[in-house]
Known about the structure:
Blueprint: H1 2-19, E1 65-66, E2 73-74, E3 81-85, E4 91-95, H2 97-104, H3 124-128, E5 131-140, E6 147-155, E7 161-165, E8 175-178, E9 183-186, E10 194-200, E11 203-209, H4 212-226, H5 232-238
Antiparallel strand pairs: 1-2, 3-4, 5-6, 5-11, 6-7, 7-8, 9-10, 10-11
Helix pairs in contact: 1-2
Amino acid sequence: QDAIDRKEKRSETFKTAVHGLVETDTPALKTEELGRRAPQWVRDNLVTMCMRCKEPFNAITRRRHHCRACGYVVCARCSDYKAELQYDGNRPNRVCQECFIFLTGHTVLEDREGKHRGILEKGAAEVSSRSLLCSSLQLLDKNGKGGTRGWFVIPQDDPLVLYIYAAPQDVRAHTSIPLLGYQVRDMPQSESRHLFQLAQSRQVFTFVADTEELKQRWMKAMARSAAGITDPEEEEEGAGP
Length: 241
């Protein structure tokens, strides 16, 4: 019974992961199609870390591979499995651990299930599909001359926190900013850059949006979160003449 329960739990976990893909050019396979139809691979440039173990990729010790069953970008350790895939004439193909378990019913010695997902361990695709706002932004460094471009999300189920991912399909955020209590500041356009800031005491974050319209949307969303507004109707009810 324990084995059956684990198998069912893994199946549900796999369904959630597959249906969490939100990129329009990466349609998710239905569970019953796994192994029967070739997946469309997640593009390498959409992830900076393994979509299973969350470890960052690098050119030497942790390189990118694709699971031939689900199309996820995974590292060698997480794709060190073989399963027969119907769409490839039932020949053995490299698959990730989760697909191996799902397709073969076999168990593996390493079992990460039960590991609590921390505040940053929510996948970008999963969070973006239920977000108040998500898009690419640039976060400038302290001197304002350089910075990091990433994927920024304010989730519906955690509307007072800004999650920052390196890429829109990453399975782990690299940092988060609690927005409550911050001030949102507009900044004049500089060299065709649409700038705005989050400020609280001595802590200041400067962002660059791609367009003025996107900048205004982010400023409004962040201001609501900074004020502790979590209900979309709350602001309207509190607005007076």
